[in-house]
Amino acid sequence: MGIKWDEFFVTGDPLILASQIAILLTSIGAVAALTYFKKWRWLWTDWLTTVDHKKIGILYILVGIVMFFRGGVDGLMMRAQTAVPENNFLDAQHYNEVFTTHGVIMILFVAMPLLIGVMNFIVPLQIGARDVAFPQLNALSFWLTFSGAMLFNISFVIGGSPDAGWTSYFPLAGKEFSPGIGNNFYAIALQIAGAGTLMSGINFVVTILKMRTKGMTLMKMPMFTWTSFITSIIITASFPIFTVALALMTFDRIFGTHFFTVSGGGMDMLWANLFWLWGHPEVYIVVLPAFGILSEVISTFARKTLYGYKSMVLSITIIAVLSMLVWVHHFFTMGNSSAANSFFSITTMMIAIPTGVKVFNWLFTMRKGRIKFTTAMLWALAFVPNFVIGGVTGVMLAMAAADYQYHNTLFLVAHFHYVLIPGVVFPLFAAFYYWWPKMFGYMLNERIGKWHFWLFTIGFNLTFMPMFFLGLDGAVRRAYTYSEQTGFGPLMLTSAIGAIILAAGFAVLLYNIYWSARYADRNISNDPWDARTLEWATASPVQHYNFASLPEVKTLDAFWHMKKNNEIKELNEDEIQEIHMPSNTWIPFYMGSVFLIAGFFLVFEWTIAAAIATIGIIAGLIFRSFDYDEGFHVHKDEIIETEQGWRKVGKGVKNHVS
Amino acid sequence: MSAKGNAALPIEFQTQQNRMNILGFWIFLGAEIVLFATLFGVYGVLGHRHAGGPMQQDLFIIKDVMIQTMLLLTSSFTMGIAIFEMRRENTKGLLIWFIITLLLGAGFLYMEIQEFSHYVHQGATMQTSAFLSSFFVLLGTHGLHVTLGIGWAVLLIIQLVQRGLTPVTARKTFIIGLYWHFLDVVWIFIFTFVYLRGLVS
Amino acid sequence: MDKTTKSFPISHVIGFFLSLALTFGAAFVALQAGLPANTVLWIIGSLAVIQAALQLYMFMHMNEGEDKAAQSINILYAVFIAVVIVAGSIWVMFSGHSH
To answer: Do A413 and A477 meet the contact criterion of CB atoms below 8 Å apart?
Structure first.
């Protein structure tokens, strides 16, 4: 038995009590609203059972934004606690929990869902397909990710949060030193979400290999599709490692094995090894699609074809290999042989080369371009200098001998925030502004967007720049407080003020979403940015079957060339044929739910209950095996009506280059 | 998603969706290779850390291991024949060889369960030492795969009887075939690097 | 990859006997030959790799179908990752002074 009943709910902390009440009220409010507006059926048929890649993409993005809020609050609490010396806002235990959940949530439940969400929405459109290769599996991926996110999230109100850092190093994360169930949440919630991610990876590899429209050879694919492809390959190559590592952690914690324990012959450092075997490729999993987004945004708003397309493809392919060969640089100080440290020092410096190639490609794309300073482009422009700071400090950290000085200090924290925020969050914001009209049929407000941009970038630099200097002065990470004599006070306060500005920037984004949903102009053409790739060739928002007839591609930047050569066709009603689409299904949602239940029982170490819940999982698999649903056909009349609905009104079809 | 068939191809490759499923399964097998490689790596690191408990030579019985290996090797062969019969569109032959394969697989599982319970009776459990933790989890993962494969195949046999040989059932059978051969490949490495190597040193 | 019309699965039978030979060969080398442990390990390791390739080509038909290139590259990449994980973990864990 892992927990006593009186410890089931986390009690005694006013902050957590307030959250518990807030969660309860929000849940009651949501149920009441759905009932009052009679939206249950809508929720079920349009969202919970959907297999439409666009809706699944939007669901992912929704989860990502909600989790961004949660992870952001964790971050703000850390900055508030360290704003002044010897602060008592959080105690050490609570601080440990907060930095753990902040890291896990931001990487696995913010960056991943947001990127996979954008991939889901955009990749099939960019390759001229009507869905992904396995639409049901895609829905299952989402619901598993969602279950994992929910299971991880409830830990702070039920049972207690994990508190061993997002890396959960042994022996601290083992049963001996963390006897509570908090770290079970880590092992099991990430396992469930990771399974979903692995399936997404397989799905996108096959989608991109097999479902490209006529004429789109690999070397004519848009860059975002290329980066999504390589990311999917890295996902399939690295997530199984994490699956095993987490399973072994679960065995150690729940079934008393000796993989990472100090006693019984286990090796605590083997955990670090396995974690980073997955963890380093994971960095490239989140950063590559973001690079793809930047490539699309920069080439659209510089109004030029991407410079060095082939070198870009080559460099991301090299990254698919090299990213698997650098993991030891995360634990240079663990006592490896100098040969091992030297080897991984060199591979780490090598991987900076393809990344550098890409930065130059973007700069040369902009050179002599007629740049339009839209909000999306501002994010792409801000990316370059900020990310370079992160990259260059990365090369500093890559030197194993010097790493002994930087390791475990705020210098490292500043470094990876300078990589991940400009490298992932900025491009994601660019993607929001750029693709929002395609997703929802209206644009996000550009003026509010610029407030968002300036607040966020200034806040970001103010938050993390001081950490470089604090780290060099010896401020260690994950320390919940410091004394006045250290002299860290002023820079820590600056950082806290920066965090407030950063949060204000995020709040402006939320306000922008609200404002634009209410007031933005719905009369936009299919191509408001004068863009270059196929997703802009169809309606905004995209109709459920994507394309009335599948486009044929002759060149890179296919849509741009269609517009330029006056090849945009009018709707020819005689050519329209019935379209075959996959049917909705309840199975993925059901599977997500039983995984959540089984996972919850396992977290509390109620193994018999978990075993019973597993029967529910098997039942779902059996049901799926006998499910021979062959989808449905969209009728010609419906297609013609839909197509006329967007082509002939307002700004309609854009068929020229401006 | 086109249902258009291409009759020149073997039955399992006839539709686009089938070709995507088969490719998808190959990609999944790539992920499985990585998964088992991680377990082998863990065994490679921890395999000699006996913590005072039993060692490989104290536990392994070569005769039983050879029988297990023969059962699995033969089942991989009979699975190949089943797919061969499927390509000749001989449903009866397919079913017979398929069922033989499963019986051989069940025999392997029986041997493995016997082996594990024998070890446990000798006091060699998952909790004894790092060596045994990594041994049981590596072999257990393989055994779990075999178990799931048998369950999955039973479901498919029901569908083959109900629906006969269609492009969909043929594709499912072909994919199980890939899975089964893959489990044999994993076993070859377990046989070599766990059992034989354990008995050498 | 045409439809099979042959009535005897000759390649499967050859593959089966080869795999039997490789298995017994490995067992013999490991248990009876009396070679130094390191040599044994290299020999039986090589035999295992050959047998795996046999399964992939003769039973699983990896190089068949319109996606044979993708299938083969995928498996090669996975094998590369597998080697990195096994060899890398063992090297990193055993070479340090922590060990």
So the answer is: yes
**Contact: C48, B188; criterion CB under 8 Å:** yes
- Residue B1 pLDDT: 38
Task: Give the gap in angstroms from C-alpha C90 to the nearest C-alpha of chain A.
Answer: 10
Rounded CA Rg of chain A: 25
Is the pLDDT at B185 greater than 50? The verdict is: yes
In angstroms, the CA A114 to CA A424 distance is 10
C88 touches chain A (CB under 8 A): yes
Beta bridge partners of A581: A632
* C-alpha–C-alpha distance, residues B190 and B37, integer Å: 11
User: pLDDT digits over C23-72, tens only?
Assistant: 999 999 988 888 888 899 999 999 999 999 988 888 888 888 888 899 99
pLDDT of A655? 76
ipTM for the predicted complex comes to 0.94
pLDDT in the model for residue A187: 95
Name residues of chain A where pLDDT drops below 50.
1
Each residue of A257-276: pLDDT tens digit?
Answer: 999 998 899 999 999 999 99
Q: CA of B23, closest CA in chain A: separation in Å?
A: 7
pLDDT for position B2: 41
Looking at residue C17, its amino acid is F
Give chain B's domain count. 1
Q: Are B160 and B173 within 8 A, CB to CB? A: yes
Task: Give the number of other CB atoms < 10 A from CB of residue A626.
Answer: 10
Alpha carbon distance A195, A148 (integer Å): 9
d(CA A220, CA A237): 25
Are B69 and C23 in contact (CB < 8 Å)? yes
CA-closest candidate to residue A344, choices B40, C88, B39: C88
Distance, CA of A4 to CA of A182 (rounded, Å): 13
Contact B39 A244 (CB under 8 A): yes
| All structural domains of chain A | 370-537 (1.20.210.10)
Least trusted range by pLDDT, from A146-160, B1-15, B48-62, B185-199: B1-15
> Can you give the residue range of the structural domain that contains B171?
60-200
Contact between C4 and B10 using a beta-carbon 8 Å cutoff? yes
Taking only the tens place, the pLDDT of each residue in B139-176 is 999 999 999 999 999 999 999 999 999 999 999 999 99
pLDDT on residue C58: 85
- Judge whether C81 is closer than 8 Å to chain A, CB to CB: yes
* AA letter at A654: K
* 3 state SS of A408: coil
Rounded to whole angstroms, the Cα distance separating A404 from B61 reads: 48
What mean pLDDT value characterizes chain B? 92
The C-alpha atoms of residue A424 and residue A436 are separated, in whole angstroms, by 17
Please report which confidence band the pLDDT of residue C99 belongs to, taking 50, 70 and 90 as the band edges.
Answer: low
Whether residue B3 lies inside any domain: the answer is: no
Which H or E run includes C97? none
Task: Identify residue A557 by its one-letter amino acid code.
Answer: D
CA distances from A625 to A588, A617, B12, B143, B158 (A): 13, 13, 17, 22, 11
How many Å apart are CA A87 and CA A394, to the nearest integer?
A: 31
Rounded to whole angstroms, the Cα distance separating A470 from A492 reads 8
> What's B148's domain CATH number?
1.20.120.80
Residue B89 lies in a domain: yes
The answer to whether residue B164 is domain-embedded is yes
What's the pLDDT at C5?
A: 57
Task: Please give the model's pTM, rounded to 2 decimal places.
Answer: 0.95
Has residue B9 been placed in a domain? no
Tokens 């609050």, residue located? A73
Max Cα distance, chain C (Å): 62
A476: helix, strand or coil: strand
How far apart CA A29 and CA A25 sit, in angstroms, is 6
Computed from CA positions of residues A481, A486, A488, A493, in that sequence, does the dihedral angle turn out positive or negative?
Answer: positive
From B24, B45, B152, residue closest to A134, measured CB to CB: B24
